[in-house]
Specification:
The chain is mainly α and 323 residues long. It is built from 13 helices and no strands. The chain is globular.
Amino acid sequence: MIFPREVPAANPPADEPMKTTLSPQERQARTWMLVAFAVVYTVWGSTYLAIRVAVGTLPPFLLAGSRFLVAGLGLLIWLWFRGVAMPNARQWGHAFIAGGLLLLGGNGLVVWAEQTVPSNLAALLVALTPVWFALLEWVRPAGMRPTWQTATGIVVGFSGVAWMVAGRNPDGPGGAVNGWGLLALVLAGISWAAGSLWSRYNARPESPWMNAAAQMLCGGVALLLTAILRGEPGQFHAGAVSAQSWLALVYLVVFGSWIGFSAYIYLVKVATPARLATYAYVNPVIAVVLAWLVLGESLSRQTLWAAGVSLIGVVITSLPRRG
């Protein structure tokens, strides 16, 4: 794994106009930010498919806990060998809260819901996350009211998501859907937004990669404790796990956690909350297409048009603010 050296944030203050020229250091920061966004946009869109395959024969919280515990521990050891400073006690405390919100509440509920909710619909409902980002950013202490540009982008993007949900045939391929699963996905989006804002505004290691490792490790422990309380270890039988589920778990550890989650935590540090939230508009497009190609879940012409509307919302939200 190759990570960039620490670079300053590429975003100017909200009340400062965009500069026409950038220094080499600023160009490097901008490049890494674009790479991180590309990773989060594409890789995380594919994880909904991997989760759907994995939970076919693996208990949900045991799956998620094993994924993040292995990923977090592996990344922590790698960073330790590189001489990166370990988190202090206060940073570990904040990592446990952020990891619980992001991974137990955010990811764990998604994994649990995908036992009964098709992966494309799960991705569409999680795309509500930018709404929670904006609202939680507004109501937090010293929070900022959304600008008209941000509000417009959120409305346009959310309209596309709503159009996609309305255009889906619930009796088509993808399996049964229940109300508890849908509610879990909404709560997952709220928890994910809360965890992201907590991580952004509270004490954390200077290295975003160490921050990611600490949060994955803490979140993995919380998920495994939940799995134990639910009795999932007793339901696990290695011989009953399919090869597809094992491969999906490996994919989730390597691409979803080491690469995808690390890129996300890097963006938490260098990107604004509004821009960070735009991944939730792009992920459903990729998830819907992959679910259609691999699992045969329905994909209508209306869904394609709605996905285009969501992407317009991304563009509006991501446009530089004028001074």
